[in-house]
Design brief:
- The structure is a single chain.
- This protein is an alpha+beta fold and 731 residues long.
- Helices cover 47% and strands 18% of the residues.
- Strand 14 and strand 15 form a beta hairpin.
Length: 731
């Protein structure tokens, strides 16, 4: 907590005055804070007691102390086959493979979809720089284990040499350090009116940070918090306190001659306030407004060490719950361990009993006739402890008949009742947790289809899905806190790094002074770059649960390959799309080459991806080529069968056509060169492929036209000979 002790406040926001040092105001404030703290301890005492017991049980402390001591004194085993961690990890690891993600969508006419994507990318970058996945995983593990967990959101300066602020997410490893308003109704704690986070600071560090403060502990702690008596010898306990305070402000309606705006008096510059005092007519109307502000305090048991005004409107402590039950207004929070304790104890007991019975059972005896081992007694005594290659015995006879050799009696095995009881306990554990991972499922993997196995897993996941769904609710509230804080924290013009969905970094510029949500500007190298104003527009938050982008891309490629196997003729058509979704080096280049080799009619489908000027040029040139093709077809229709006699006119027409074609191609090349300079590299590659395809068509048309001009020339020559030049011209 050291580097985030004091949440940074915007210079534009003034904090309320601190209670007078040592006065009645500070004493009354501390009294109210301690009363709230004690109320939270009392309300959470039962949940904390059960939660601590759950964590100890998960960690392997699963035998009652009295029974364990008794069995230990009798030198009897107390085996612990701890399955609780496996049950917990079955839920938490599934969540890590399918992490919920925060999505942002625009709301209202002033919002912008591209700005929503930028905010989503900025949230991803904040989470990555904060290692937010650690905070989320820790809180979720606590919720699954003992019933609840927390993480917090902080603000800090970007660096030691900057006044720019950033948002960070920080994990709370011990959920028993947090004391939230017990009157909350929302599962993520979004409606809390106050909250505490207790912490221990080394005394030397406390004195360095607060040399004039009295190192008196924040004495009250609840169950699960670090031991208060031990901590006072080397540490000082402090408490962070978030609470709302009502602040009275005067709202002014200024005269239209000034601005006609509605402003708060404390936000006006001093010269404007002086002008209003000199001329009250500048104010048309005024009224007192009670405004709710969120305050942050750091306190010991005797004094306030620091205070600040939190920029956001929600207490930046996010709660994640496990299984919630409300009985007569008393809320009980539990994890997956709570109801599995008794089946786990039964499993431990019956496993211990089975082991004990087998260990204490006598070794299987040998049955033989008297005198058969005479002379070999020592070797037969060691037969149960050593592995001999052979055993010697003396053959004997009874009534003249040889007696059989010595035979070992078979082992009776553990009692069936004990084995069945142990299996029943294992089944009970899976029943109360809703999670199945028994051996029968593993055996079925050899003869079941992939869809059947997915259905089996889905049935298992349904029993514990409420844990992941509760995490999604908490992440949604976290997204709302982000959307509320971003315009207030990122309040200066600067360039930010955001993280797109495919984990690629992108540089964007924000300018809170813009009037619209998004505009355009140019970088130093002349490239066009979007500029965003996060203060304009409203945005809503949703949470998506599922695989990440890389997993989705792999699944898409696998589905495409399956489709291509089912419909082989689709391979040449969708090959570029399959390569694009592959996750190996060079996939993008291969996809571009395959796309360039597509037939012209399929390449036209991607024209809409080009910029407007490129689309207009392609359409214009396509029209010219179509017109030339029509003229060429008309000339072919007039040829007939007399092409040998029209050689002279054919050369002339052929030359005109070649000149016209060359002019068109040069014009196209010049315009395409100009456009290519402003396009990105990928678009340029695709446009070059389109141009090459059209140029090939032009060359083919040119060659065909040349072959047919011979006929035109022959027809013209014969017509001149037969009708005369004047009649030919008239015709």
């Amino acid at each position: 907590m050291a580097e985030y002790d004091a949440p940074a406040a915007s210079a534009a926001v003034s904090s309320s005055p601190k209670p007078k040092k040592g006065g009645d105001g500070e004493a009354e404030f501390l009294k109210i804070a301690k009363e709230r703290f004690a109320r939270a301890i009392a309300a959470e005492s039962e949940n904390r007691s059960n939660g601590i017991d759950d964590l100890k049980f998960k960690n392997g402390d699963q035998w009652p102390a009295q029974i364990k001591a008794q069995r230990s004194s009798e030198r009897r085993p107390c085996l612990t086959i701890n399955k609780m961690k496996t049950f917990v990890h079955q839920i938490t690891n599934d969540q890590r493979q399918n992490r919920p993600s925060i999505n942002v969508s625009p709301v209202g006419d002033k919002s912008d979809p591209e700005t929503a994507k930028m905010l989503k990318g900025l949230i991803r970058q904040i989470e990555r720089q904060s290692s937010a996945d650690v905070a989320y995983d820790t809180a979720f593990d606590n919720a699954v284990s003992n019933g609840w967990g927390y993480w917090r959101i902080l603000t800090a300066y970007e660096s030691d040499t900057s006044f720019d602020q950033v948002i960070r997410v920080m994990r709370i490893r011990n959920p028993f350090r947090v004391y939230l308003d017990p009157d909350i109704q929302e599962p993520e704690g979004s409606d809390a009116d106050w909250g505490f986070i207790s912490d221990l600071i080394v005394r030397e560090k406390f004195k360095a940070q607060h040399p004039k403060a009295d190192p008196v502990d924040w004495a009250d702690v609840g169950l699960g918090d670090e031991d208060k008596w031990w901590s006072t010898q080397t540490h000082v306990r402090i408490a962070e306190y978030f609470c709302y305070e009502m602040r009275s402000r005067k709202l002014l309606a200024l005269n239209a001659a000034i601005s006609g705006a509605l402003v708060f008096e404390d936000e006006l510059p001093e010269d404007m306030r002086e002008a209003i005092r000199q001329n009250p007519a500048l104010v048309v109307n005024e009224r007192e407004v009670s405004q709710k502000t969120l305050k942050w305090y750091k306190m010991t048991g005797r004094e306030i060490l620091e205070e600040n005004e939190w920029l956001g409107k929600w207490i930046p402590i996010v709660k994640v719950i496990g299984d919630e039950t409300d009985v007569d207004g008393k809320v009980s929070l539990a994890g997956v361990v709570r109801d599995a304790k008794d089946p786990q104890r039964m499993y431990n007991f019956w496993t211990t009993a089975e082991t004990e019975l087998i260990a204490l059972a006598p070794k299987a005896p040998w049955v033989m006739e008297e005198g058969q081992v005479e002379g070999h007694e020592q070797r037969w005594k060691e037969a149960n402890n050593k592995s001999f290659p052979y055993l010697l015995y003396k053959g004997t006879s009874i009534a003249g008949k040889p007696s059989p050799p010595p035979q070992r009696q078979p082992f009776a095995g553990p009692p069936a009742a004990v084995v069945n009881a142990k299996m029943s306990a294992a089944q009970d554990m899976m029943a109360v947790t809703g999670i199945r991972f028994d051996s029968t499922l593993a055996e079925r993997t050899y003869d079941e289809s992939g869809r059947a196995l997915r259905e089996l897993k889905r049935v298992s996941d349904i029993g514990s899905f409420h844990y992941v769904d509760n995490l999604a609710r908490s992440l949604r509230h976290t997204g709302r806190i982000f959307i509320d804080l971003i315009p207030k924290v990122y309040d200066t013009k600067r360039v930010l790094t955001i993280l797109r969905e495919d984990d690629k970094e992108e540089q964007v510029e924000i300018d809170p002074r813009m009037e619209q949500a998004r505009g355009e500007g140019k970088t130093e190298d002349g490239r066009v770059r979007s500029i965003y104003n996060p203060k304009v527009g409203e945005y809503e938050v949703a949470v998506t649960i599922g695989p990440n982008f890389a997993t989705k891309r792999i699944e898409a490629a696998e589905s495409m390959l399956g489709f291509m196997k089912a419909v082989p003729q689709s391979g040449p058509v969708i090959g570029d799309l399959i390569a694009k979704n592959m996750d190996w080096p060079g996939a993008e280049e291969i996809a571009e080459r395959l796309a360039a080799s597509l037939p012209p009619n399929l390449q036209k489908m991607s024209v809409g991806k080009f910029p407007p000027e490129a689309q207009a040029l392609i359409q214009s040139l396509t029209g010219q080529l179509e017109q030339m093709q029509q003229q060429h077809n008309q000339a072919l229709a007039m040829l007939g069968d007399k092409e040998k006699d029209r050689q002279i006119e054919r050369d002339k027409i052929n030359a005109d056509y070649a000149a016209q074609t060359e002019k068109t191609v040069k014009t196209w090349e010049a315009q395409m060169t100009k456009i290519a300079a402003d396009m990105q590299e990928k678009l340029c590659a695709r446009l070059d492929g389109q141009f090459e395809a059209v140029a090939n068509q032009v060359r083919a048309m040119e060659e065909a036209y040349r072959k047919q001009q011979e006929t035109d020339a022959n027809i013209e020559a014969l017509a001149r000979q037969a009708l005369g030049p004047q009649n030919v011209t008239a015709a």
